[in-house]
Amino acid sequence: MELNHLRYFYEVARRQSFTKASAALRVSQPSISRTIKQMEDTVGARLLDRTRRGGVSLTDTGKLFFQSCESIFQEVDNLKLTVQQRDAEVAGDLSIGASDNICNYLFPDVLEEFFARHPKVRVQLFNGSSGDIKGEILAGKSELGVFHTPPTEPAIEAEKIAFVEFAIVGSPANKELLKLSKRFEPERLAALPFVSCRTSDYSKPYPIRKMLKSIDITPTVHFESNSQETQKRMALKGLGYAILPRYMVADELRAKRLVEIRTPKRLGADIYLACKKNKTLSKPAQVFGAHLKAKLKDSMFP
Fold first, then answer.
1. What pTM was computed for the model?
2. Interatomic CA distance for residues 166 and 216, integer angstroms
3. Which of 162, 194, 198, 200 is 20 to 30 Å from the Cα of 9, by its Cα?
4. Which CATH superfamily is domain 91-162+270-300 in?
5. CATH class of the domain comprising 3-86
6. Residue 2 — left, alpha, or beta (φ > 0 → left; ψ -120 to 50 → alpha)?
7. Which phi and psi (to 5°) does residue 86 adopt?
8. What is the pLDDT along the chain (302 residues), one digit of tens a residue?
9. How many CB atoms lie within 10 A of CB 161?
10. What CATH number labels 164-268?
C-alpha cells in the first residue's frame, strides 16, 4: 500500500468528501475512488460509507486506518520540517539553463518559494534552446539544465520530472482558425500558416514537430523563432497558429484573446532536469533540483 494511496484516503476522510479531496489533491475523483476501492479490496473491509447527501463517513475499520494515517502524516510533516531546517543555511552560487517557456512561466513561482527558503543562494539563469543549454552544461557554465528535448549526449544525464500539456492556439480574428476551434480538420489546419520553433536549432525533429506528426499534420511554416514567447505574440497578432505549453496561454484562452484547436490526441512533452554526468552537484543545485521536482509534482502537474 503506497503512501500516496493513504494520502487519498486520509484527505477524503478528513474532508468527508470525495469532491473536496479531489480539488485539494488535484487528482480526478474517479482516480481517488478507484484507489480507495483497491485499498478496501486489499484490506478485505470497507473503509468509507457514502452518505445520501454526497458526503462520506468512516466505518469502524476506516476509523482505525484514519488514526494511523494521522500519525503517519504527522511524521511526514516532521520529516519535511527537519529537512527544511537542515537546508535553511544553503548558500552560494547556482547557475541554471532553462527553456524559454520554463524561464518565463514556471520559474517565477518556483524561484519565489525557493528564495523564501534559501535567501543566501544567488541564481544565474540562462535562457535558451535545449541545444544551447546542453552546451552550457558541457562547458561548465550551467550546473543544471531544464528543458523539453530528451538529451542524447553521453556526457549528460537527465531525469524526467514532469509532463506538460501543450495546446494549439491562434487568434479568434482568423475565421479559419475559429471554425477549426469548433471542429478539428487536420487537412485544413495543415494548410494554414504555422508559427514554429527555429528548425536550425535542432538536429532531430523537436517535440512540437512530433506532436504535429502524431495528429497527421505536416505544417505550412510561416514564421520561425527560437523564443516561444515570441511565437505566442505572433499568434496573438494573427500571423498563424502555434503550439505552446498550456500554462503559457491559460490567461489568453480565458480572456478569449486566443482560441484553442482541440485535437483527438493529448499533446504534450516531458520536462527534463539535466546535469553533467559524474559531476558532484553543489548544495544549492541539489536542494534546487529537489525543490523543483517536488513543486512540479505536488503543485503543478499532479
1. 0.66
2. 16
3. 162
4. Periplasmic binding protein-like II (3.40.190.10)
5. mainly alpha
6. beta
7. -65, -35
8. 788 889 999 999 989 999 898 998 889 999 999 999 998 998 899 999 988 776 899 999 989 989 998 889 888 888 877 776 665 578 899 999 999 999 999 999 999 999 999 999 999 999 998 889 999 999 999 999 999 988 889 999 999 999 999 999 999 999 999 999 999 999 999 999 999 988 887 667 678 888 999 999 999 999 999 899 999 999 999 999 999 999 999 999 999 999 999 999 999 999 999 999 988 899 999 999 999 999 887 544 43
9. 18
10. 3.40.190.10
Q: What angle do CA 212, 217, 221 make, to 5 degrees?
A: 85
Cell numbers of 187, please? 487537412
Three cell numbers written together for 222? 510561416
CA distances from residue 124 to 95, 144, 272, 284 in whole angstroms, order as listed: 5, 11, 19, 12
* CA distances in angstroms from 298 to 146, 171, 251, 287, listed in the order given: 18, 33, 22, 16
Positions of CATH 3.40.190.10 in the chain: 91-162+270-300, 164-268
